[in-house]
């Protein structure tokens, strides 16, 4: 939180414009305050009808949409926006966490589906993952960050030209970090994407996996390949 | 169960009824045939005795009797009655029938060519009457009409047998087919509903009748169940939303306080309150997940899951975690098997079991995972060499919110094994707890999920 707070006043030009659709006043105020600290320009809509008006009035980089809303339900808002060919990334943030609800939301056109409660840093990471263009995959499916090279087609990893043997899960984790090379990837995002889990084990299996990748990936003269973002997740190091 | 005690299938029942009907029809037809033939024989015998009595009316003298015979033979040859009068020495003295040693009384006779005396008379029945003067009067009736009647009767019976046999067989088989089709529809619908498609209903033909009536009643029942499930879902959605929202507000407020409180003495208390809040939110999440699993909704998501890579991956993921805590974790046996199920839930089940074993054993313990395919049953088990659970406490740990630590100070919400049990049940498995060794001081604990293969081909061995 402090990290975000220090960045206040960097100027609004580079900020993400976010429409937050949330009927609970206090939750909306809290989220708006926290997101503003993390360089978002937040506009709040209190019900589905307001949300639809506002989307048509202004350009947003992303929309956070609650599912249960007065007047027009969140799922209905989602459908109408997608029917109007509005392709703004939409993150559904909802208390309904059953698999069927999630599938319904994603099938309805949501780009991400997050079950409440959510840490603001988690939300921040996911919004940034949604709003930026995906990493450009180089020739023959090769991703490169610094000295690290991941061949997605051949499932091969090299650092500084040296081939590194990774197990399938380790490979998938590293590939996801490289695909989001300028963003934080949270533990939850890794659990969902790499493991396919819609639950969080008590044990931090992501950290265990990262530790194993590090022992294989870090060797002289190269520095730390994976940066830990405290309390949130991981990022591939620019200096790698 | 002995094979003979098994109830017959519908088709077998129908075939048995058809066979019983045909046997009964056959017996009745044969009796009718025999009775009819006897009746005709009696009729002929009456005719023969009437004719004999008429010839011997008023006790005629021999000459008169001969004259009567001659007269009849000339008058009524078409009656196909033949006569013969033999004197006491057995010589024929009147009548056209030629027969030697006619048997006394009624008898069936066959006429060979040389005996043929009357046109059209080839076989028949005769009545031979001894007269007081030692001569014998023989009257013969042609049996052609009997043969004709007999053949006709036989034909009618055979045609009747075939026609009604076909009608009965068609009727029984089509009834059996109708019932079977309907039962199959009921079964398919029930299976689809079990697989999570609550919108499925039984077909109603609209032609009325008991089957339609039954389908309507069952559909009505399904509607009612769907309504109840929907309202249950509604309730848990409400719980999820209406209880989580104020808790989240509370948490937001506490988080805000941490930020502004700075380093006041209250800070640890506020942080503890946040942890407490998170605990309640986790508990809600666990309860909601449990009810999602128990509703069976996730069956819609079932696909063949190859247990081999799933278990191997999980064990290799948890090996470093276990080692960090000073325990060892190993995969002791891994038979490859494919189980229709929800991959994510099966992973959660195994993770809970491994985490449970790590939580409830002292450092230095050994934890083992096994997938054992014994043909009839498939067992996934996690065992440890820790303190175990006394047998009388085992039932209670499977109940919701039970923690053996009675002060409830240990972390966790006490739903871990309940969740494992619910996932096992969703997949048709059962959860069993037992000791690993007979050593009462350190029995260890083995938690097994057992899937039986007896009912359906629920679990297939891995092909290739």
- Low-pLDDT runs of 5+ residues of chain B are 406-410, 456-464
Order of helices and strands of chain B, N to C? HHEEEEEHHHEHEEHEEHHEEE
Report the β-strand fraction of chain A as a percent range. 15-25%
Count of alpha and pi helical runs of chain A: 9
Specify the helix fraction band of chain B: 40-55%
Order of helices and strands of chain A: HEHEHEHEHEHEEEEHEHHEE
Overall outline of chain B: rod-shaped
- Helical amount among residues of chain A, as a percent range? 25-40%
**What's the Cα radius of gyration of chain A?**
19 Å
Mean pLDDT of chain A: 84
Widest beta sheet: strand line-up of chain B:
2-1-5-4-3
Features:
heterodimer, A: 240 residues, alpha/beta, 5-stranded parallel beta sheet, 4-stranded antiparallel beta sheet, disordered N terminus, B: 464 residues, alpha+beta, 5-stranded antiparallel beta sheet, 9 helices, 17% strand, disordered C terminus
Topology:
The complex is a heterodimer of chains A (240) and B (464).
Chain A: H1 2-5, E1 16-21, H2 25-37, E2 40-45, H3 48-57, E3 62-66, H4 74-83, E4 90-94, H5 99-107, E5 112-115, H6 120-131, E6 142-145, E7 148-151, E8 156-159, E9 162-164, H7 168-179, E10 185-186, H8 187-195, H9 205-217, E11 226-229, E12 233-236
Chain B: H1 10-55, H2 62-75, E1 81-86, E2 92-94, E3 105-110, E4 123-130, E5 136-142, H3 144-194, H4 209-261, H5 267-294, E6 303-306, H6 307-324, E7 328-334, E8 337-341, H7 343-359, E9 366-373, E10 377-384, H8 391-397, H9 416-426, E11 429-434, E12 445-452, E13 460-461
Q: What can you see in these coordinates?
A:
The complex is a heterodimer of chains A (240) and B (464). Chain A has 240 residues and is of the alpha/beta class. Chain A is 38% helix and 21% strand. Chain A has 9 helices and 12 strands. A 5-stranded parallel β-sheet of chain A has the order 2-1-3-4-5, with helices on both faces. The longest helix of chain A is centred in the first third of the chain and has 13 residues, at 25-37. Chain A is elongated. The model of chain A is unreliable at 1-11 (pLDDT under 50). Chain B has 464 residues and is of the alpha+beta class. Chain B is 53% helix and 17% strand. Chain B is built from 9 helices and 13 strands. In chain B, the strands form 3 sheets. A 5-stranded antiparallel β-sheet of chain B has the order 2-1-5-4-3. In chain B, strands 7-9-10-12-11 form a 5-stranded mixed β-sheet, with helices on one face. A 3-stranded antiparallel β-sheet of chain B has the order 6-8-13. In chain B, helix 6 (307-324) packs parallel to helix 7 (343-359). Residues 406-410 and 456-464 of chain B have low confidence and may be disordered. At the A-B interface, helix 2 and helix 9 of A face helix 4, helix 5, helix 6 and helix 7 of B.
């Amino acid at each position: 939180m402090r990290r975000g707070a220090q960045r206040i006043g960097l100027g609004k030009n580079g900020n993400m414009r976010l429409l937050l659709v949330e009927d609970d006043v206090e939750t909306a105020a809290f989220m708006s305050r926290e997101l503003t600290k993390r360089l978002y320009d937040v506009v709040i809509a209190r019900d589905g009808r307001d949300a639809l008006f506002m989307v048509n009035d202004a350009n947003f980089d992303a929309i956070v949409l609650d599912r249960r809303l007065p007047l027009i339900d969140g799922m209905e808002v989602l459908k109408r926006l997608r029917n109007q060919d509005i392709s703004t990334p939409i993150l559904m943030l909802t208390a309904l966490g059953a698999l069927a609800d999630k599938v319904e939301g994603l099938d309805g056109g949501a780009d991400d589906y997050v079950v409440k409660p959510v840490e603001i840093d988690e939300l921040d990471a996911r919004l940034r993952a949604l709003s930026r263009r995906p990493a450009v995959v180089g020739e023959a499916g090769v991703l490169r960050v610094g000295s690290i090279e991941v061949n997605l087609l051949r499932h091969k990893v090299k650092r500084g030209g040296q081939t590194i043997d990774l197990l399938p899960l380790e490979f998938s984790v590293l590939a996801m970090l490289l695909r989001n090379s300028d963003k934080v990837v949270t533990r939850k995002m890794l659990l969902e994407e790499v493991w396919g889990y819609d639950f969080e084990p008590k044990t931090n299996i992501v950290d265990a996996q990262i530790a194993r990748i590090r022992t294989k990936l870090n060797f002289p003269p190269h520095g730390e390949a994976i940066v830990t973002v405290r309390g949130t997740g991981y990022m591939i190091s620019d200096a790698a | 169960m002995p094979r003979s005690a098994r109830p017959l299938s519908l088709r077998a029942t129908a075939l048995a009824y058809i066979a019983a009907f045909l046997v009964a029809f056959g017996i009745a037809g044969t009796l009718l045939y025999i009775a009819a033939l006897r009746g005709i024989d009696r009729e002929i015998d009456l005719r023969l005795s009437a004719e004999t009595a008429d010839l011997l009316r008023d006790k005629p003298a021999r000459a008169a009797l001969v004259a009567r015979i001659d007269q009849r033979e000339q008058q009524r040859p078409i009656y196909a009655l033949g006569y013969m009068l033999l004197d006491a020495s057995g010589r024929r003295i009147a009548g056209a029938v030629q027969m030697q040693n006619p048997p006394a009384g009624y008898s069936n006779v066959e006429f060979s060519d040389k005996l043929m005396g009357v046109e059209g008379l080839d076989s028949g029945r005769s009545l031979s009457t001894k007269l007081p003067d030692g001569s014998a009067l023989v009257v013969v009736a042609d049996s052609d009409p009997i043969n004709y009647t007999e053949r006709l009767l036989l034909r009618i019976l055979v045609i009747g047998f075939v026609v009604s046999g076909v009608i009965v067989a068609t009727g029984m088989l089509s009834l059996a087919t109708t019932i079977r089709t309907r039962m199959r529809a009921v079964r398919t619908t029930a299976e689809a509903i079990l697989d999570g498609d609550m919108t499925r209903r039984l077909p109603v033909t609209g032609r009325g009748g008991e089957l339609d009536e039954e389908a309507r009643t069952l559909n009505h029942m399904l509607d009612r169940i769907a309504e109840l499930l929907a309202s249950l879902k509604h309730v848990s959605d409400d719980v999820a939303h209406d209880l989580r929202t104020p808790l989240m507000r509370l948490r937001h407020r506490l988080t805000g306080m941490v930020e502004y409180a700075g380093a006041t003495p209250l800070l640890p208390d506020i942080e503890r309150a946040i942890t407490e809040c998170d605990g309640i939110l986790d508990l809600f999440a666990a309860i909601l997940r449990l009810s999602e699993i128990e509703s069976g909704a996730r069956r819609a998501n079932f696909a063949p899951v190859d247990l081999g890579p799933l278990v191997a991956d999980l064990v290799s993921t948890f090996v470093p975690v276990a080692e960090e805590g000073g325990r060892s974790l190993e995969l002791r046996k891994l038979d490859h098997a494919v189980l229709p199920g929800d991959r994510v839930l099966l992973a959660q089940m195994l993770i809970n079991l491994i985490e449970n074993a790590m939580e409830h054993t002292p450092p230095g313990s050994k934890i083992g995972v096994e997938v054992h395919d014994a043909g009839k049953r498939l067992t996934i088990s996690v065992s440890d060499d820790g303190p175990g659970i006394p047998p009388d406490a085992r039932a209670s740990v499977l109940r919701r919110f039970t923690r053996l630590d009675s002060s409830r100070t240990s972390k966790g919400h006490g739903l871990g094994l309940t969740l494992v049990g619910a996932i096992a049940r969703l997949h048709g498995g059962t959860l069993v707890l037992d000791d690993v060794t007979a050593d009462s001081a350190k029995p260890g604990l083995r938690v097994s999920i057992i899937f039986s293969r007896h009912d359906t081909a629920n679990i297939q061995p891995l092909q290739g």
